[in-house]
């Protein structure tokens, strides 16, 4: 074997044979003669090792994660990688450096995305209905059509992002949706608004899935929930900033207020997209602001989770595996219910508050604390999930309770005699957003195999779109300003979500116990630092149960 090949890439065949022997000794099914089974495993291991070595020597690398290819090409040895990962001060400095680069970009984009999506709701409080002669039913369809576009565009954008440069896909779409907002200001009818709203959904579709994959690429499992929470909490910041902006824009008298909202917000977003094009890196390997050793350390940190960095090859068996994984389907239905709540609250909450005040500017001002509450819910919940091991599903369950209480208050408390109580219910109802953030991050955190992760993220966002399409139609114009049917739907969805959160926890606990039991049965592998699984683009079902990596976490629950 070529001595220049880093030892961490191709496990020594004898070591692999010894590892397989230990594996079989603890897992013999009894259906096959042990000697024949061992011989079969040894033959397979030897062939795999020889094939991998030949591929490296001839330059044919077809099935490795790009992070591992980067390590090969730059001669980062196993010993050097372990030295880097053992340097805790260096790790802390690197995480801070990544935070300073990525978090402002992701957070700023998310804030603008929320404000821009909410432009329709802000406009409805002012003069949108009178200027465009739009009905309440048409308004509901405008709210939904955005997510029809999201639904149509999500998978194509996901494919493009995997096959090309993710950062350029993100920044290009930000510029496009900023331009589309400005074009919307020229509309004079429901038809024109619907077309622009649909295209806005097309251009915003790749943002959240790409951001979840970016966080999964750059951070470890324990770091991911809080980082996702940081940028997602900017929905709350966006609610506050958007409220202040529209309160100021509402003073304009020269043109229709809703047109001014779209023009100003679109211009700001377009400029932000150009900034993202310059600063957001496509991946770890091509990031210009990091040294070779920093890139190697970031890749090594990703190896601990055995989820990989990036692999541009579409693997159909990983798509099939995603479709039969119960965890993926629990998250799918959890997201469907969550976004049914969100679709109604996002589109009609301001109209509910306007029913209390009767004044557009007061309504916008009273919506600002809702954003502050959202920031609190998301940051506190994701912080707890990051600091306490295996606590995410508990947070997902607990943070649905304020939503249940809040919607009951909004439904049952008198809107005439107890307006303060209704406002309090409105402010706490948004706690479900924290559960959303944790559910969104789970596919990128818990699942291995790049194609499986992207497929699972896509399925979860399919549910995200369908829920947001359904939600607005539960709020019937004839029931304004209380919207009893909408309140009942939100109560039912949040209660069902609580059941799914418990079910997900039980499933992950069961899988963790299976993995721990499998690892406990393996003996005689002390000193073997890498099984070789983490070098390939393997799914979480394929990765060996061996305790072969000293810091390997289980599925976080």
TrEMBL record:
Q: Name the lineage.
A: Eukaryota, Fungi, Dikarya, Ascomycota, Pezizomycotina
Record's bilayer topology term: Multi-pass membrane protein
User: Any transmembrane segments, and where?
Assistant: 98-115, 139-157, 169-192, 230-250, 256-280, 328-348, 360-379, 391-412, 424-444, 456-477
Record's keyword terms, sorted:
Membrane, Transmembrane, Transmembrane helix, Transport
| Family statement drawn from the similarity comment of this UniProt entry | Belongs to the major facilitator superfamily. Allantoate permease family.
- The Major facilitator superfamily (MFS) profile domain covers which part of the protein? 102-513
Q: Tell me where on the tree of life, at the top rank, the source sits.
A: Eukaryota
- What protein does this entry describe? Major facilitator superfamily (MFS) profile domain-containing protein
Q: What compartments host this protein?
A: Membrane
One Gene Ontology MF term: transmembrane transporter activity
Q: Which InterPro entries match?
A: MFS (IPR011701), MFS_dom (IPR020846), MFS_trans_sf (IPR036259)
Question: Which SUPFAM superfamilies has this protein been placed in?
Answer: MFS general substrate transporter
| Annotated Gene Ontology cellular component terms | membrane
